[in-house]
Amino acid sequence: MTPPDSPANTTDSRLLWGPEAAGDTDYAARWRRRTWQLHGSVVLSHLYALLLFVGHAWAGYAPWQALGWYALWIGAGMGFITWAYASGWSQTRRDPGMFLAHQLIAISGTLGLWMAAPQVAFQAMVMLLAFSADGFLARRRTSFWMTWGCTLVAVAAIVYVLGPQMRMTTDTPAGQLLAVAVMVGGVFRCSLLVTYFRGMQYRLRGAHDQLAGALARIESLARSDELTGVANRRGVMERLQQAQQAVERQGTPLCVALLDIDHFKQINDRYGHDGGDTVLRAFGQLLAAQVRAIDCVGRYGGEEFLLVLPGTTPSQAQVLLERVRQHIAELPWAQLVHADLQVHCTVGLSAYRLGEPTEAVISRADAAMYAGKAAGRNRIVLEDAPALAPAGLPPAGVPEGTAAQRDPASAKVE
Questions:
Q1: Which of 50, 169, 215, 298 is buried deepest, with most CB atoms within 10 A?
Q2: Is the pTM of this model over 0.85?
Q3: Are 189 and 248 found together in one domain?
Q4: Where is the chain membrane-spanning (predicted)?
């Protein structure tokens, strides 16, 4: 049962430093390990400070009795915190990092010894600065600022009352050595914390880069067709919208082509879905190889592919599409799928008109493509234009050897 004052039952359980911050067991384990490491560094800091105070007492700057009470207070406090971490009791509290306990023990002990021995004021002030670096253990920012706000008030009061008795311990060689040792200890402790957090920052940056890479791959997968390798419907529609915006700004031409593999259902029925997948894959790869970097090829749905051709006029697009149509017919389908297979496609082509929605230009390309289907397939049809049969093939419904075959323009399109 969760204790009533545990972080899980508070209305604001987001901690600056706590096992609930990420909500997973791996993070909680890492948090406990790092907490022990930091607790160990705090204990070592207290031991170092105690040794310095012993040096001050030995040099005559502090009374031994005050030093004894300081040692007893710090020992009892660190023992309590060690027990709280080891038993798991701290994790049932609202302050799982024991920030307040750490700070109250350290600050009260230092201030008490400072009042009992004003001559060690220099070490006391350096210690307080070093302990303030433990602010990341605070449960909230307000906890940190309130703790150290009260501490600064206490420091000001001590300085006001005991100021005349305070002095640097540099009047003797022993005192000079102790002053240097105090600075070395303070700088060393702060340097360790800086190194620790710089390492954490580098790890976070590495994790951020990995996450950014993973998100980029996910974005790519979300816009790519897994089978053909070209853009999926979402990806090609986004590219079309971008091209539309560029046309509206610059007034450049934009063409859209809708390509449909002829008799694809029969291909699936006769050669199976593996054969159909092979056709789709080769079709998509060929389209991607024929277009420019600024163009976009996408699988629009089923056996339909959408080409977005920015900066391209209808006449230029027809040249490209005729080349694509011929390459598709010339692919070695017999080696790829079956000896009897021949693959063709019907293409509907439309040009974007300023101010219209993207659905309109696609709709006209779709209508042109269906007109090509009705006219006999394997051809390119420009919107509002007659379906043009490829070279060497008569229009649909015209027997070979007729005058209409020799002069396709004289043939009536159904």
A1: 298
A2: no
A3: no
A4: 40-61, 67-86, 98-114, 144-162, 174-197
